[in-house]
Fold:
Amino acid sequence: MNWRGTSLVSLAAIVSLIASTHSRSGLRVRSELDRRRYPDGVTVSDAQMATVQLKRHEFHGDWNYTIAPRFTPPPSLI
Structure:
C-alpha cells in the first residue's frame, strides 16, 4: 500500500520504500542496499531444500510462506 503511486526510479528509492514498511501490529522493516557481487549458477540440492523449515500459507502458498529458524536462541541472546 505504501508504494502505491510511487515511481521506482532508483535503487535508493526502492530501499527507502521497503524500509518505511510497517504493519498495524507493530512490524517494522529494516532494509539496506547490498552492492556485493554473488556468484552465478549456485544451485541448492533437494536434500538442502528439505532441511528448510518452510510453512506455506493457505492463500497462495507458493508466494506466501514462513521460514522458521533452525534453532531458537535463548532469550539472553536476543
Observations:
- The chain is about 20% helix and 10% strand.
